[in-house]
């Protein structure tokens, strides 16, 4: 399998998942300014959305959308610790978090990464992110991870997008449950290896 990624982008989430399930994979770096891979391929030819992550299977089939790529990977690996079995409520509780993170958190960072958004828009999204993170901090009270005491793909996704708070100067250290959650996930070897591999 090949994972097309950009350093520290949302593609880090399926990258960490690949390391958690321990299957062989290849990383292909994409320059998101030029939309070119390191070998000079036009990335739009592979993914007409122009976005990472993109997963390419050994037979050439392609899958986009990070939240879905993570589900596909853990299902393939039968890792129901990272995403519980189909037809059980805990699975849909993890998926509810995945959807919340994708729709409410991930995209709320967009104004900070595109120059066309003005300061007023950034202020609005700072407020939105602060409200969501205060709520997430409450949800983490008395538990190690979002849905209990075991890591799931939702925790990995939340970790990846919440790292961006540091890049945009969003102060979250007053949220003590969220802060210890971030540290807990950051301490995992798979996470450290993935971040290191992306910075090489
Ligand atoms: N809905 C997509 C969004 C992916 C996305 O926003 N990717 C960003 C990096 S985090 C990207 O590739 N941006 C470059 C572009 O849109 O041209 C997903 O969840 O996978």
UniProtKB/TrEMBL annotation:
Residues 87-200 form the GST C-terminal domain. It holds the Pfam family GST_N_2. PROSITE patterns: GST_CTER (PS50405), GST_NTER (PS50404). Signal peptide: none annotated. PANTHER family: GLUTATHIONE S-TRANSFERASE GSTA, GLUTATHIONE S-TRANSFERASE-RELATED. Residues 1-81 form the GST N-terminal domain. It comes from Acinetobacter venetianus (strain ATCC 31012 / DSM 23050 / BCRC 14357 / CCUG 45561 / CIP 110063 / KCTC 2702 / LMG 19082 / RAG-1). This is Glutathione transferase.
